[in-house]
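Quick one:
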Amino acid sequence: MSRSGKDQDRPVYGGSTLSGSVSGGAVQAGVVHGGIAFHSAPSTPPPVPRQLLGAPAHFTDRAAELAELDEELVENRREGTRMFAVLSGPGGVGKTALALHWAHTARDRFTDGQLYVDLAGFSGSDPVPPEDALGLFLRGLGVPSREVPVEIAEQSALYRSLTADKKLLVLLDNAYSAAQVRPLAPNSPSSAVLVTSRNRLTGLVAEGARLVDVGPLGNVSAVRLLTKVVGKRRVDDDPERAEALVDMCGGLPIAVRVAAARLASRPKWSVRKVVTELSDERSRLSMLSAPELSVQTTFDLSYRALRPTAAALYRRLALHPGQEFGAPVVASVLEKDASRASLEELVDGNLVESVGESRYRFHDLLRLHARNKAHTEDEVDERAHAVRRMVEWYLGGAMAADLVVTPHRRRQVYRFAAPLEDVPEFTDRESALAWLEEERQNLIACGRAAAEQGWWALAWQLSDALWPLLLHHKHYRDRLEVDRRGVDAARRWGNKDAEADMLKRLGMVCTTLGRFTEAEEHLRASVAVAEEVGDRRGSADAEEALALLHVAGGRLREAVGLFERLVRINRELGARRNLGLTLINLGKALTGLGRTDEALRALVEATEQFRDLEPPDPYNQARVVVAQAAVHLRVDDLPLADRTARSALEALSALGSKQGMAESHHLLAESAERQGNTEEAAEHWQRALRLYTDIGSSKADGIAQRLHVDDGPQPPAHGG
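Output:
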């Protein structure tokens, strides 16, 4: 029977001859006809693959990441499983350098060789198909090119067979997806697979791979890298500017290397010269470019890999006024469902960094890149709309918190440009204040952004909405900026009521900071503006702040006279809460004059004003108790002063009021001193000092000086 076509290429098992290529023994079933001849095939073993690229020059530090890889290898060897690690980070962060450095230090543990492939996941062209990479690996393992299967399923099966018992190190560089990686990972428990990718490849992590986040270098390490390239002398000549240079590079190794290359190739240049070049943010990315080593190009390749909605989010989030942001604000610039998926795409692609369970931020250079993309791809109106949506989202959250924490105060009406999405809701004061504190820097930055855009009503509202946080947590340095911007915004807005209110607040914070002349100027201006528009209540509020200035300046009799007048005005206005506040201040001023019986009567009436207030005002109820403790201390009823101050401290601690807690500790310290309890007094003084320092109160200086005199030199107070 004749054979033709492809049948002629197949091994013939029916006779006493065997043609074709086979490996190992062959068994013939049935009757053997004719003689049997044995032929030995060539037994030259395939070469051991050594495909790693060279160890990177100038590799610097990465001790934590290297230790994590060593630990992963040891754990897997102990458990009898293969090592599988994914090094993930933004483009240019040094993932490949880290992988190659570790691979070279560990290669002796993998006696069957090392396989390497650049999968070109972010090269600007199509990623390498896994079948092409498998073909490369199979040939590296000794399979002749003509015998490499065509189909990926057959390639994978052969690859698994060849690597089943080998000690191989496989480095898959620049991977785009988990699907690209899976066929290339050998199953041998003695092997190790190291993957680098700008994406987080969560599919592999879900299957047991260890994710190693690779972030920018710290400043010390980045300066060390700079020194390795340009030489120690030039860095030592100007260490401060060397630190400034790597800071402008954001610790990104590719950026540091480009900046270092500019210096190394220009021996006459100083570090100052390159710092000056990079100081303009608009041109920084283009300056950080060299042949075959460009930060701009590196980021462009990551950007092109994004889907259109994720790319739009990338551009818009770069316009976010603050340094970091929470997930809910994303819905303000992109449709809610799409925003969540797109944000995850940015995180998975290491274009946005996750810094907590629900907080995110850009690397500084990536933010510049994204802003550049926004300016080249989006119209001016589109950019302004995105900024306004984010700023108004923060205002909406602050207003919601304000209504919970300070429900009684007067407010200006604000009309939002569009309905808000995902604005936070609060059920108690603690959660509202916690949100305001978490978003404090963003809210302040939003106020700046609104002023820069000339949105004066919005800028004023953002200053106003911060009142509950500044009332309870103080932040006096922030408050100066917020209140000054609020005054300017009100004037440019042309709203006299808003101007009078913010002038009063600015005068109050200047009083607290000991700037009495400036405080009086603002407060008298507030009274004048309120009277100009016929706002009797606003005028009374400003006069109350003026009376408090008199107290701070030691003009107690003048202050008492003004407080007594304001008590009458608030009774006439039927302003019950304001009356309670004035009575607290009157009681404290009377205590200072030694008129303690009158002070206690004023404070008892203040308690009555707050008792049935709806909604309740627990903060000012607790302030009454602090004032009462001060009266008891003034008359030397120390046991009652202690009990009252401790009651106030408990209430104010629950409310998170550092100012009130500091005042309570202050009273307890004075009482303990009078009773001869020096250790207890010192403890309360220290706690009062920490709290006053945290809020930036001028009272911290007096306590610090007192402790220095009593106990000798003290360590510097933190947080000031």
